[in-house]
Design brief:
The complex is a heterodimer. Chain A is mostly beta strands. Chain A has two helices and 23 strands. Chain A is globular. Chain A starts with a strand and ends in a 10-residue tail after the last strand. By secondary structure, chain B is mainly beta. The longest helix of chain B is centred in the middle third of the chain and has 7 residues. In chain B, 2% of the residues lie in helices and 48% in strands. The N and C termini of chain B lie far apart (72 Å). In chain B, strand 16 and strand 17 form a beta hairpin. Chains A and B meet through strand 19, strand 21 and strand 22 of A and strand 5, strand 6, strand 8 and strand 9 of B. Strand 19 of chain A pairs antiparallel with strand 8 of chain B, so a sheet runs across the interface.
């Protein structure tokens, strides 16, 4: 039987479907790719529904989208507590201790992640115009995400956080001090992110490099190395201007967001 | 042998530059060609948003606009083309693009005016992309040789190398006084900002990209025609359009003035001829204090 391959997550779909059953991307539209190779994250149609494990997720709204999760018995999702928009009263909640308390406090990250268990419904959303990015993670995948950008992850994902290496990266990078790391092991998982503005993704070849504004960084495969490079410009006999950009080196995917607070706001 | 002739059959309602009208978008400004002009009863035309992935040509390079909420302007620069931009709008760049600092005068005045001190230049070959930090629209303003526009500060995204740039005082200000526990406090307000950017093309057509938060509307004012707008909603205007402040003082039992507060509406009057563009997102002006001094202004007591 013919199958339709999703251009975003590569899942195989039945021919009668109009949106991908694992990520919700419209199947009857071509991928929008700019001339330089950045692909727009699929614009999820209002009320698009897709499945993970025995549960489902529906994306509602288009300006500040809400992800509504219908959790089945035995399924769970985790998230930062402030993204929860509403929940049914009977949905059990628990907390995931992330470890590294002092480090996370210094990095401005929450000590505790909330876990919602099925059965029942909850909804999560962020606080600004943007897009929900749905990233199904296949076994053995590792993804690094800008801190505070993840909306929810399924229980099959292993969560940790990694320090951004290098003092220059931390002080000048603008990505923060830590990145969230999501790893799948034997089971596939699903990660929902919120990107401010519009989200674009590019797959870098081995050794291929791109410079991006650190504030625009959203996610990357852990195989992509990130380094902050300093660009120095003279503005006169004694003056100078430093610019810090994140140098990404492939192989792997890099995701960026088009709206961000510039990290050199003071200049 | 007959010489092929170019017949212009279509004039873009936005940039007014003729083209053959065979492409889906205007080759000069990216506005959709087949869109029906939507004009409100009062005469404001909603500027057609640039379609996702639309390409605009300039010199030997192209600019592609992608995204809908906070659009990204991605330029594929030819080796002989260059653009300049305010450094905080850069999103990503190829390593092959040469970045440098653009020399500008009046650095100290720019600091005082809260304007970016550093303008960067980017020279091809390679891709470079820009985006702003508010949901809104990217506006393409194509400029013919010697054509100029005045742009409110912080709306500028990027311009081609042959577009000249300087800035001048807006000349639009007012002072308020209010009584505080420490005595009389005087404050000077600049509803448009202290300065405005002027861009004009020389040596051929140029392209100017702006970002307008919210939606954008344009209007072509006839000679002598006036319109009052919220000062912070103005994005750009033709230099032929004159502007001044207009204060309205409403009356009624709920409207009163005191030493601390004065009921008033601060408008910016725009007088044609020429085009003006406004955005749907704006800041509400403060109403504190009595107006004691101002630039050229009109007043109406209701």
């Amino acid at each position: 039987m013919d199958r339709i391959e999703c251009q975003w997550c590569r899942a195989q779909n039945e021919p009668n479907r109009t949106s991908c059953f694992t990520c919700g991307a419209p199947l009857n539209q071509r991928n929008l790719v700019s001339d330089s190779g950045w692909a727009e994250a699929p614009r999820l149609r209002d009320m698009t529904e897709f499945r993970f494990s025995n549960s489902s997720c529906q994306i509602e709204g288009e300006i500040v989208p809400v992800a509504e999760l219908a959790l089945a018995q035995g399924d769970a999702v985790f998230f930062e507590h402030h993204v929860m928009l509403w929940k049914e009263p009977h949905v059990p909640m628990s907390a995931m201790n992330t470890g590294g308390g002092m480090k996370r406090m210094l990095g401005g990250m929450p000590h505790v992640l909330s876990i919602a268990h099925g059965p029942g419904r909850i909804a999560v959303s962020r606080d600004a115009t943007g897009e929900v990015v749905v990233l199904p993670l296949h076994p053995e995948m590792e993804l690094d995400v800008r801190e505070h950008a993840f909306l929810a992850g399924t229980h099959s994902l292993n969560y940790s956080f990694v320090r951004i290496k290098g003092l220059a990266n931390i002080l000048h990078g603008g990505e923060g001090m830590y990145m969230d790391r999501f790893v799948t092991q034997n089971q596939p998982g699903l990660l929902l992110l919120h990107g401010y503005g519009n989200v674009f993704q590019k797959t870098l070849r081995p050794g291929e490099q791109i410079l991006i504004e650190p504030g625009g960084f959203l996610y990357k495969d852990s195989s992509v190395t990130m380094n902050t490079v300093k660009q120095q410009y003279r503005t006169g006999l004694v003056g100078g201007h430093n610019m810090f950009l994140a140098e990404m080196t492939g192989p792997g995917r890099v995701g960026i967001q088009s709206m961000y607070v510039h990290h050199h706001k003071s200049e | 042998m007959s010489t092929p002739t170019t017949t212009s059959t279509y004039t873009c309602p936005y940039c007014r530059i003729p083209s053959d009208g065979t492409s889906a978008t205007c080759p000069h400004c990216g506005a959709p060609v087949d869109v029906r002009e939507r004009v409100s009863r009062s005469g404001w035309a909603e500027q057609p948003p640039i379609r996702d992935m639309a390409r605009i040509r300039f010199n030997r390079s192209t600019c592609q606009i992608s995204g809908l909420y906070v659009p990204v302007a991605e330029m594929n620069l030819h080796p002989e083309d260059w653009v300049y931009f305010s450094h905080h709008v850069l999103l990503h760049t190829d390593r092959s693009v040469q970045l440098d600092v653009m020399k500008m005068r009046g650095g100290w005045n720019r600091v005082l005016a809260g304007m970016p001190l550093v303008m960067m230049t980017a020279r091809g070959p390679g891709f470079i992309a820009f985006s702003a930090d508010h949901p809104g629209e990217t506006l393409a303003v194509p400029l013919q040789h010697n054509q100029a526009v005045d742009v409110v500060e912080h709306r500028f995204l990027v311009a081609t190398g042959n577009v000249n740039y300087h800035w001048e005082n807006t000349g639009v200000w007012f002072q308020t006084q209010q009584q505080t526990s420490d005595g009389t406090e005087t404050e000077t307000h600049y509803p448009l900002g202290r300065t405005m950017d002027r861009f004009w093309a020389q040596g051929g057509p140029g392209l100017l990209l702006l970002h307008g938060p919210g939606n954008t509307f344009i209007r072509d004012l006839a000679p002598g025609e006036r319109i009052c707008v919220q000062p912070s909603s103005l994005i750009w205007k033709d230099p032929t359009v004159q502007m001044w402040l207009h204060f309205e003082y409403p009356r009624g039992q709920y409207w009163f003035s005191s030493a601390r507060w004065q009921a008033k509406t601060v408008w910016l009057t725009l007088q044609g001829p020429g085009r003006v563009a406004v955005q749907s997102v704006f800041e509400r002006p403060e109403t504190v204090g009595q107006v004691t001094n101002c630039s050229s202004a009109t007043t109406q007591q209701w």
